[in-house]
Design brief:
290 residues; alpha/beta; 9-stranded mixed sheet; binds nicotinamide-adenine-dinucleotide; NAD binding
Length: 290
């Protein structure tokens, strides 16, 4: 396929490289000067999009996505797929999809989970919103860049699935970290705590697969001085998107709200910026109730 790829950052560059490696003809564009193996460079987003069967965007936020979409939608060929893999607000995803449909394109919102490691290894999970036709056309690309894709319904539903998942992740990571800090104060050994919780009803991905306590459970960023992994800033971004969506849809999400405020404080007022989101544990262990 002829693919335009816009946004060749930490995630986009390895995803584009995997598509090129699989034999696709990939033309990339990023505002920054970036070279990606097997990907030819365009001078503008428009140039990358012109004549492509599929245009993939992997951008920082909804405003940037809207701006890029406004440039490329008019030059894309009718029937082409506009595949946004960024994590953005549901409203922006739906607005871009509506403009794309009006222009005769097939839009998909397909945010990912799996992080930079998953992007490099081609093992991402895609949560996809859009028509059956668009999903079927893009399926071979999901299979190259990832190991799983779930078609979640119409446009915007991929983003909805992503932010609901990550709201659970933020809340469970905080719960896991505060429980470890409480266990410490009660004189409970961390290994014993892990052995019990990871096989009892408190188990979760945060505890079992990404344990925030160093030296316990499988290897995780906690074993590497909390170098991300999944940065606290990115968790904050996703939690904010969940609360923006909750406001817009009048959903009661008290724990999501509280998790957003805790990560905001951690990133903006404390030492959380640049650290993994599981570094909530050293944050809690230093504190008392006051
Ligand atoms: P990044 O900041 O490394 O990459 C974004 C790229 O977009 C940058 O290279 C930037 O120069 C480029 N860009 C910005 N504005 C542009 C424009 N107008 N035109 C062209 N290029 C432009 O971010 P990332 O980590 O690659 O994340 C990309 C998206 O994926 C985000 O929405 C993020 O939330 C999501 N995501 C990231 C991870 C992760 O672990 N990094 C995991 C899941 C989802």
């Amino acid at each position: 396929m002829k693919i335009g790829f816009i946004g060749l950052g930490n995630m986009g560059a390895p995803m584009a490289a995997n598509l090129a490696k699989a034999g696709h003809n990939v033309t990339g564009y990023d505002m920054a000067t970036v070279t990606v193996d097997g990907v030819s460079n365009a001078r503008t987003a428009k140039e990358a999009a012109e004549g492509a069967d599929v245009v993939i965007t992997m951008l920082p936020n909804g405003d940037i996505l809207r701006a890029v979409a406004a440039q490329i939608i008019p030059v894309m060929r009718k029937g082409a797929v506009l595949l946004d893999c960024s994590t953005v607000d549901v409203e922006s995803a739906r607005a871009v999809a509506s403009d794309a449909e009006t222009a005769g394109l097939l839009p998909l919102d397909a945010p990912v989970s799996g992080g930079i490691g998953g992007a490099a290894a081609g093992t991402l999970t895609f949560m996809v919103g859009g028509s059956d036709e668009a999903y079927t056309t893009a399926l071979p690309l999901f299979e190259t860049m990832g190991q799983k894709s779930v078609h979640c319904g119409p446009s915007g539903n991929g983003q909805a699935a992503k932010i609901c998942n990550n709201m659970i992740l933020g809340v469970t990571m905080i719960a896991t970290c505060e429980a470890f800090a409480l266990a410490d104060k009660l004189g409970l050994d961390r290994q014993a705590m892990f052995d019990v919780v990871s096989t009892s009803s408190g188990y979760s991905w945060s505890m079992n697969a990404y344990c925030p306590a160093p030296g316990i459970g499988p290897k995780s960023p906690a074993d590497n001085d909390y170098i991300p992994g999944f940065a606290a800033e990115l968790m904050l971004k996703d939690l904010r998107l969940s609360q923006q969506a909750a406001d817009a849809s009048d959903a009661d999400t008290p724990l999501g709200q509280q998790a957003t405020e805790l990560y905001r404080r951690f990133v903006e007022d404390e030492d959380g910026a640049g650290r993994d989101f599981s570094a909530m544990l050293p944050r809690f262990e230093k504190r008392g109730r006051g």
